[in-house]
Design a protein that fits this description.
The chain has 3 domains: about 60 residues, OB fold (Dihydrolipoamide Acetyltransferase, E2P) (Beta Barrel), CATH 2.40.50; about 70 residues, 5' to 3' exonuclease, C-terminal subdomain (DNA polymerase, domain 1); about 60 residues. Helix content is about 45%, strand content about 20%. By secondary structure, it is of the alpha+beta class.
C-alpha cells in the first residue's frame, strides 16, 4: 500500500526490541514506522526531511508500517517472510542487523553463523533460511554487487569475525558494528587487514556518536 513515505522526522525512539520506531510527518499526518536500530541510526536528525521505504503489514486487527533504508531491503524483507517460521518482526531483525548485501552474501555462502547474529534468530532458523533461499536471491546479488556493496563483499569471514569480536569487547553492539562496516564498505579505499578495519570502524563510530 505504501511504497515509501517522505516527510519530516518528528521522533526517533530506540527503546529496544519491538518498540524501535520513527514518527514521520507527511502532509500533517504522523506515521509511526517500525524500523531496526541500524536503519534509525542511518536517518537524518529529528526535524529534518527523510524518505523511508515502507511496507504495510496486515495481521488480523493489527496494522504495522515497517520501514527500510532502501527498496532492496524492502524486497528482501518480503522474501524472508516466505521462509517457514520467519514473520515480519524476525525479517526486520535480519535485514536491520546485517543489511541487504551482507545478508544475501551470508545466504549464498551458507554462513549460518553470520545469519544467527540477528536477535531472535537461532541456528535452526538460520539453516532453514539458507535451505529455502540459497540460489533464489540472484536478483539481489546482481543489484548489490556494484557500488554500495557493504562489508560482506570486501573482507573474508574470518576478518569480519575478528573485527566484530574486538569491537564487541570495546562495548559496541552488533548493530553499531554492522552499520560501521556497511558505511566503510562504501568508501573508495577499504582496509583489508583487521587492524586497519578496526581503526576505520572506530573513526566512524566516534563520529556517529557526536551527531
Amino acid at each position: 500500500m505504501f511504497a515509501f513515505l517522505k516527510g519530516t522526522i518528528r521522533a526517533k525512539d530506540l527503546l529496544g526490541g519491538q518498540e524501535d520506531r520513527v514518527v514521520l510527518e507527511v502532509s500533517g499526518v504522523g506515521f509511526e514506522i517500525r524500523m531496526s536500530p541500524r536503519s534509525i541510526l542511518a536517518l537524518p536528525d529529528t526535524g529534518e526531511e527523510a524518505l523511508v521505504h515502507t511496507l504495510l503489514a496486515v495481521r488480523e486487527n493489527d496494522l504495522t508500517i515497517f520501514g527500510f533504508e532502501s527498496a532492496s531491503e524492502r524486497k528482501l524483507f518480503q522474501a524472508l517472510q516466505k521462509v517457514s517460521g520467519v514473520g515480519p518482526k524476525m525479517a526486520l531483525s535480519l535485514v536491520g542487523t546485517l543489511g541487504a548485501s551482507q545478508l544475501v552474501t551470508a545466504v549464498e555462502q551458507e554462513d549460518t553463523r553470520m545469519i544467527s547474529q540477528a536477535p531472535g534468530v537461532g541456528k535452526k532458523v538460520a539453516e532453514r533460511i539458507v535451505l529455502e533461499l540459497k540460489g533464489k536471491l540472484d536478483a539481489f546479488s546482481k543489484s548489490l554487487s556494484g557500488a554500495g556493496a557493504d562489508a560482506a563483499a570486501y573482507t573474508s569471514g574470518q576478518t569480519r569475525d575478528e573485527v566484530r569480536s574486538i569491537l564487541e569487547g570495546l562495548g559496541y553492539t552488533i548493530t553499531e558494528i554492522n552499520l560501521a562496516l556497511t558505511e566503510i564498505g562504501k568508501e573508495d579505499v577499504i582496509p583489508e587487514d583487521v587492524e586497519g578495519l578496526v581503526r576505520s570502524c572506530l573513526r566512524y563510530l566516534g563520529a556517529a556518536s557526536v551527531k
